[in-house]
Amino acid sequence: MQALGFYFFYIINWIITLLPLRVLYIFSEFLFLFAYYFPGYRRKIVAANLRNAFPEKSDTERTIIEKKFYHHFCDLIIETSKLAHMSKEQILRRMTFTNPELLEMLYKNGRDVVALLGHFNNWEWVALSIPLSTIFRIVSIYKPLQNKYFDRYMTDLRSRNGLILTPMSQIVREILNSRKNNLRSIFFFVADQTPPKSDIKYWTTFLNQETPVYLGAEKIAAKYDTAVIFANIQKIRRGYYSYTAELMFEHTAGLPDHHLTEAHVKRLEQLIRENPEYWLWSHRRWKHKREESHD
């Protein structure tokens, strides 16, 4: 059944995404009607997340953000689907890297890098554009999908421009391999995911709520004394984004515990507060409560 569903999706998606993005955005408008009005997609989760994150805003203000989010979310679905037919030239034109000189400096200094980003704006396009924009070897930590057919499809899609995907359990092996072969690497962590209840080791305040966070990026950075950058992805206009690498730390060995984690959480929150409609509000980010953990 999984195979049947996947191949049906694959054929339909491959045909439809032959159309240019300007036409596909018409599909996005129709998709919005289904996602927001009927039958609706995670409307209760989105509304609760916005209400808890922005208690100071009125119901009207939160509703405006909610509708803008769903429009952006539907665009993301279309933009990710379009990757099946986007050339290297197209992806570089639509996702511009504003400061490659920072990575050039880190590379010349012999630094490995931990890069942190959130589900903010179009993170999928970054995965395809960054390997084309730097001499660094690019490794992204990912969580395999339950459907093995979709997992293979997304892995092939994301890695076609040179991105290396590895599960968290294999990240140390990747670092040791890169250093053994003198390959300067950037290790990407999507840092706003929710840890399983059994893996919660640290809580912070994020968007007005007590929030469990992964400490993997901090531990890897400190253990191997990597530089750390934050991926600031901004939407220029529909279908066009920019990516700025913000240097958070050039050296991380000896940093106080949780200092790095608190820094990147606060930076992401700042970006979300500036443009809240561009974050993934449908994510069940706060499904675990502090009193439920053994922290």
| Radius of gyration from CA coordinates | 19 Å
* Largest sheet, spatial ordering of strands: 1-9-8-2-5-3-4
Choose one word for the global shape: globular
Strand count, sense and closure of the main sheet?
Answer: 7 strands, mixed
Q: How many helices in DSSP terms?
A: 11
The helix/strand series, from N terminus to C terminus, equals HHHHHEHEHEHEHEEEHEEH
By secondary-structure content and strand pairing, the structural class works out as alpha/beta
Estimated share of beta-strand residues = 15-25%
β-strand number? 9
Distance between the termini: 40 Å
**Helicity, as a percent range:** 40-55%
Domains counted in the coordinates: how many?
2
Mean pLDDT: 94
Unreliable stretches: none
List keywords for this structure.
295 residues; alpha/beta; 2 domains; 7-stranded mixed beta sheet; two-stranded antiparallel ribbon; 11 helices; 9 strands; 46% helix; globular
